[in-house]
Amino acid sequence: MASSNDPNSTSAEIADEPKVENKSTETQETPEDGEKIALYISSDAVTPEIQAEIQHIFDTYPCLGITPDPGYIKQVPASDWAKGLKPLEIYDEHGRDHPVFRPSPIVILDERTAKDKSVVIVDEDWGEEEDEDGNQKLVPKSLRCVPEWVQMVVVNLSIGNQNLWEFAQHNQADGVFHGFPETESKPESETSPADT
Q1: Banded model confidence at residue 9, pLDDT cuts 50, 70, 90
Q2: What is the pLDDT of residue 34?
Q3: How far apart are CA 183 and CA 26, in angstroms?
Q4: Residue 29 has pLDDT above 70, yes or no
Q5: Torsional sign, CA 60, 36, 64, 164
Q6: Residue 78 carries which DSSP code?
Q7: Fewest beta carbons less than 10 Å away: which of 117, 120, 147, 189?
Q8: Where are the beta strands (DSSP E) in 19-177?
Q9: With bands split at pLDDT 50, 70 and 90, how would you rate the model's confidence at 184?
Q10: How many CA atoms lie less than 13 Å away from 78 in the CB half-sphere?
Q11: How far apart are CA 48 and CA 18, in angstroms?
Q12: How far apart are CA 187 and CA 106, in angstroms?
């Protein structure tokens, strides 16, 4: 095949070469498998300005030294059906075979988000019920989280590094996960050399 620098090459040959490059770039989009985390909005109280502010935090806020992946958490197109539904109802309806979005976890901006900017993360976690073999069943559960920690939480849930319970046990009195106790009150810019 003629190279793209060859003046005798056809435009079809030139057009095919960048596609290969783009495909390899897409496969490196996120460390897990290139799928996005689904974002739903369940309340009209979440204005476009609030949504944009929270999306900006998802896309830019470094948490525990992890550089965020812009666009990793993304609103599902044509998801107005989620308005007025509870988090577990949205999770049940979430398209598990969507080519862009992971089946789990999902992120939801709800009525409380409009008041305090906290968001809901829904994922499967071990429940109280057992299956016919006596093993615990995975059931959908939710966690309310400040937006600065959402990307770190969903990445760890996605790769199975942690589960919702491990985050929820650090919720503050307001029922929201604000980070782990040793990190929540000290932004990265205020860490001393002795902390590293």
Answers
A1: very low
A2: 52
A3: 33
A4: no
A5: positive
A6: T
A7: 189
A8: 36-41, 73-75, 101-109, 119-130, 136-145
A9: low
A10: 2
A11: 35
A12: 26
CB of 61 closer than 8 Å to CB of 188: no
Strand bridging mode 101-109 / 36-41: parallel
pLDDT digits (tens, 9 = 90+) for 68-108: 889 999 999 999 999 999 999 999 999 766 778 888 899 99
Strand partners, 106: 38, 122
Backbone dihedral angles phi then psi of residue 9, each to the nearest 5 degrees: -75, 155
107 - beta bridge partners? Answer: 39, 121
Q: Let me know: does 191 contact 180? Beta carbons within 8 Å.
A: no
pTM of the model: 0.73
Token pair 């799928």 is found at: 35
Average of per-residue pLDDT across 110-134: 90
DSSP 141-178: EEEEE-HHHHHHHHHHHHTTS--HHHHHTT--TTS-B-
pLDDT at 35 over 90: no
Which amino acid type is present at position 161?
N
Percentage of the chain exceeding pLDDT 90: 51
Residue 75: CB partners within 8 Å, gap ≥ 6?
Answer: 39, 40, 41, 51, 55
Q: Span 141-151, mean pLDDT?
A: 95
Structure tokens that stand for 189 in this block:
């810019």
Residue 153 φ/ψ, nearest 5 degrees = -65, -50
Q: Alpha-carbon distance 98 to 101, whole Å?
A: 6
